[in-house]
Amino acid sequence: MNNLLKLSFLVIPTVYFSQNFAVSSIPEELKNKANIIVRNEVSTYVINSIDNMEIDNQNVFTVMNKAGDDDATVVIPYDKSTKVSDIKVQILDADGKVIKKYFKSDFTDVSSVSAGALYQDDRILYLHYIPVNYPYSISYSFHVKTPNTIFLPDFYPFLEYNKSIENSKLNIINKSGIKLRTKNVESVFAKVSVSGDDNNLVYTYQNVPAIEKENYSPSLKMILPKVQFSLEKFNLEGKQGDMANWTTFGTWMYNNLLTPVSVVTPEIKAEVAALNLTGTTSEKVKKIFQYMQNKTRYVNVSIGIGGWQPMIPDDVRRKGYGDCKGLTNYMKTLLDAAGIKSYYSVIWSDETPLSFDPDFPKMGGNHVILMIPTEKETIWLENTSQQIAFNHLSYSTTDRNVLAVKENGIDIVKTPVYKPEESQEIIKTKVILNEDNSIDLSSDFYYSNAQYDFNMPLVGLSKEDAKEALKGRYSHLKVSNLEVNNINNDKDKAQLTYDAKFKVNDYSKKLGNDMFFRVLPLLETSNINSNEERMLPLSLSFSYQDIYETEFVLPSGYKVAEKPMPIALSSEFGNYNLDFKVDGNKIFVNRKITISKGNFPKEKFKAYADFRKKTANFDNMKILISKQ
Questions:
Q1: Is 245 helix (H, G, I), strand (E, B) or coil?
Q2: Counting C-beta atoms within 10 Å of the first and last residue's C-beta, which end of the chain has fewer, N or C?
Q3: Are 562 and 545 in contact (CB under 8 A)?
Q4: What is the mean pLDDT of residues 44-59?
Q5: How does the average pLDDT of the chain come out, rounded?
Q6: CA distances from 88 to 13, 91, 123, 267, 341 (A)
Q7: How far apart are CA 193 and CA 109, in angstroms?
Q8: pLDDT at 10
């Protein structure tokens, strides 16, 4: 589902040209860590009626260095219902003097069709200025008129790292007589001031310093303040609705977005009948799902009621493609034909587990999946991938809620959360140690759930491409020869397996009659700097368990000088074990680490970094063997 919140990107205003925008007038604390500084940003939303909204945007920002150029392009999205006018751009030098002007005719107008898209109503006007000197400033303004009042953006100070705010203001003038609901989510990182009354609200952020990205930190959306807005009655492409609560909004979605395009045609009935379904509900759903997977492919099709309405299922059937909305609704219609109830479910697909607010109905989401309650379990289907396993949600859609759209409203339902032992990497390796310091490895690889997702790019690769992918993954080794075989995607269990053989040079080191080598050849370690001045909370974004079982076969005439002692570490973040066993000319090394997801205050970062420093030190342990 693409560009679902189009107007949120329009909150990029321009300038009160009478102000002083010399770089010298910027407070020093706002320059610290900032690539871009928003000098004055004002967005004014005027809600004239249920189907008439106007937005005036004024913005001036200063680009401090080359690193800020990527975010300095002026981008104005629009579609067939959105009218954009009065576009003006000025470039200012470091003293705040105008050195160049641009107008609408200077912008490039392109379709915003993304890779893999076939139909999209959305377009983009953009202007990219190539600077001669730094710092420089860009001021711009434009006016938008739209009939779609369903889209009111959340007001954040910013959502980019290394960006500071001198002044950012959002005005909402409500002339419609429709109740406007608001919700202020506070944060220690910035404060929003509020003034005005119910029909003329003014929200302001001032002097917000830049935030620099830190390892293992949550998304800015999770930690920054925001103000949410939602009209109780709205319009979307001529379809008027009620968003007083999730029940009324869900009923509107069901009746206006889904019912008109959810027809079970005779052809769809015939498709399902030809599958000769038998067994349990789960078995029937799996057979239909795998049929749908083999028949269709993902293509972005953002048309129909603002890009929110799915393609007609019979069109998906005939053409063999669709986007997340079209493919999910096609799957739902196939299940309808089989007499199996399922629910079209809107979700935020993101590495950060973003959820809908149960207490604040609002249009949102960027993806659609399918939920099927059965007598034994709830089945979840991701319908856009031909490779993904049945009843498996990827890392970007687990541990959050969905809007399950039903005839009588919306149910807010939580997606599954994988336990550490359900998201495993298991690598079993036999290592032949050679006298010339090389090693020969034979390894079996196993991945499940979240780690299955991370390794899915291997599926479908040629042997040569898979070989290059693994060479890149194990670049810390001097690999002279590599074979990858038997890549298997178990689409029933969400498990990926394969085996590989490596020839690695210069792995061990000799010291007289002794030889020493690292106990975990396939693990590359890295340390976390625990001395940095931490500003952001600690976020461990997913739970996992890694198990490495390694068997070393010693060269003839060698034996272990001293067997290392077993290691066991425990912390609030997880556990680590490293065990050793010697049996004749073989050494067995078993390593297991279990990490549980969670969010922690910044003060916990040092403890986590120290825990991982210890595990890294043990992972780099070396064993000494001596020639007899």
A1: coil
A2: C
A3: no
A4: 98
A5: 93
A6: 11, 10, 19, 54, 53
A7: 37
A8: 37
